[in-house]
Design goal:
Layout: E1 4-5, H1 12-44, H2 48-76, H3 78-95, H4 102-130, H5 133-165, H6 168-188, E2 193-194, H7 203-222, H8 226-247, H9 257-261, H10 263-279, H11 281-293, H12 298-305, H13 307-322, H14 328-346, H15 354-381, H16 388-418, H17 428-454
Antiparallel strand pairs: 1-2
Helix pairs in contact: 1-2, 1-4, 1-5, 1-6, 1-11, 2-3, 2-4, 2-7, 2-16, 3-4, 3-6, 4-16, 5-12, 5-13, 5-15, 7-8, 7-16, 10-14, 10-15, 10-16, 10-17, 11-12, 11-17, 13-15, 14-15, 14-17, 16-17
Length: 463
């Protein structure tokens, strides 16, 4: 069995350029659409729960396909899967503006999520394959900084586009960016990376994983009614079956033995899961809060929200470079602690001025910037090159599961306090109460994440 690997045909600078472009694309889409949700809700006459599914459908699709595509990339080539992802994402983005109803829009969001899963399953794996260990943290830092640049421009760009050109213009803009990305992948990346070439693909394990994940997230969205508990239990049972099935496979779709035998890999992924669970829905809930409660326009709300990802983008390269010299767990744990402090302050957001909101978002951004790059470096550096695709896919899955869990918690709390009613003057009080509960839950989650982050141990035990 010979791996088809041509690492030196593509310069590291070209790989980093393409990784930066693709890393910008998907978070821009995710953060910009938050500012368009009230406009979409008004046009299609849907409640806040359905609006939450505009984000969740994309995330669920990404999570279901991310691990299988990561494995396929290791077998058939990371560049091939990466390019297919860019094309799929761009196609979905070009179709979304023509959605005649909310169901069609959600369907295209699922397709967009599939494309995103191919991009995220391979982008970081390619970067890790090309850069040597002593430069890897810096390269990962720049890639993650691009993610935050997309998050930074998303609220401002999304608010601006929604206010002056309508919400559909966000998808047109993203499709145009996707075309540019596809061009650079074809023209600038010449090599291929497939260290697991010739190994079989675990289709049955992928199906068990995908169905179980769908049941889990769908069940969470239906709570507290009885069908929600049935789906949730079925999903949890499916995950247990998946774990035992995969442990018995010679070539599993997800290498679960890495969790059992590699403490740095296991605890780093758990820390990522907790961090994203506690932070992702902050932008969603704050977008609604700033527009419904503070009566800001989409543009002005975007300008407020941009504070957090701007700080992330500035700090991530620094944190990535530092993680090449300082133990990643120390930097990541400090970042988790800062994030926890920011979430505690947001519990009192109802009494905050806009200036205080911005200051708190800056603190959150700093915390996440110091956490994410070192944590990603620890995960990718803890495995052998054969598992880079699986590691990248697993890390992406932790991110997406955390994001979905974050949105699921918000939708559950909103449904408990408001039912399926839209945010109007008569139920503003219930909306404000639900926000406070959301941030309190997020605070406790992130607090426990501090211990998970520190428990991973040293990446370089001899140091």
């Amino acid at each position: 069995m010979t791996a088809r690997v041509n690492k030196h045909e593509t310069a590291t600078g070209s790989v980093l350029l393409v990784a930066v472009i693709s890393a910008f694309l998907t978070p821009f889409m995710g953060s910009s659409i938050n500012l368009a949700l009230p406009a979409i809700g008004s046009e299609f006459d849907v409640d806040t729960i359905i609006l939450g599914w505009i984000a969740t459908a994309y995330l669920l699709s990404s999570a279901i396909f991310l691990v299988p595509f990561g494995r396929l990339a290791d077998i058939y080539g990371r560049k091939k899967i990466f390019l297919c992802g860019m094309i799929t994402f761009t196609l979905a983005s070009s179709l979304l503006p023509f959605s005649p109803d909310i169901r069609t829009l959600l369907g295209f969001r699922v397709l967009q999520g599939m494309g995103s899963s191919m991009i995220f399953a391979t982008g970081l794996a390619i970067v890790t394959s090309v850069f040597p260990p002593d430069q890897r943290g810096k390269a990962i830092g720049f890639t993650i900084a691009s993610v935050y640049a997309g998050l930074s421009f998303g609220p401002f760009g999304g608010g601006l586009l929604t206010e002056y050109l309508g919400w559909r213009s966000i998808f047109f803009f993203t499709a145009l960016m996707g075309v540019v990305g596809v061009y650079f992948v074809i023209r600038r990346i010449r090599g291929e990376w497939a260290e697991a070439a010739g190994e079989p693909f675990d289709l049955s394990g992928s199906l068990i994983y995908g169905v179980s994940l769908f049941f889990l997230i769908f069940g969470l969205s239906l709570l507290p009614v009885l069908p929600g508990f049935i789906f949730l239990f079925s999903g949890a049972a499916g995950i247990v079956v998946f774990v035992f099935y995969e442990l018995g496979k010679s070539f599993p779709v997800m290498q679960l033995k890495l969790f059992r035998n590699n403490a740095v890999f296991a605890w780093s992924n758990l820390a990522a899961l907790i961090n994203y669970s506690a932070t992702f829905a902050v932008a969603f809930i704050m977008s609604l809060y700033l527009q419904y409660i503070k009566d800001l326009s989409p543009r002005d709300a975007g300008l407020v929200l941009v504070a957090q990802p701007v700080i992330m983008a500035l700090i991530s390269p620094l944190a990535g470079r530092l993680s090449d010299r300082i133990e990643p767990r120390l930097l990541a744990t400090a970042g988790m602690a800062m994030t926890t402090a920011g979430l505690f302050l947001l519990v009192f957001v109802n009494s905050m001025s806009i200036t205080c909101v911005i200051a708190t978002l800056i603190l959150l951004g700093a915390g996440f910037g110091f956490f994410s790059s070192p944590n990603s470096n620890a995960i990718m550096s803890a495995v052998s090159p054969k598992y880079y695709g699986i590691a990248s896919g697993t890390m992406g899955t932790m991110r997406l599961l955390g994001q979905m869990f974050s949105m699921g918690l918000v939708m559950l709390i909103l449904s408990l306090y408001m039912g399926k009613e839209p945010v109007i003057l008569e139920n503003i009080q219930y909306f404000l109460q639900s926000i406070q509960v959301v941030f309190l839950v997020f605070f406790f989650l992130c607090f426990f994440g501090i211990f998970a982050s520190y428990a991973r141990g040293k990446l370089h035990p001899g140091e």
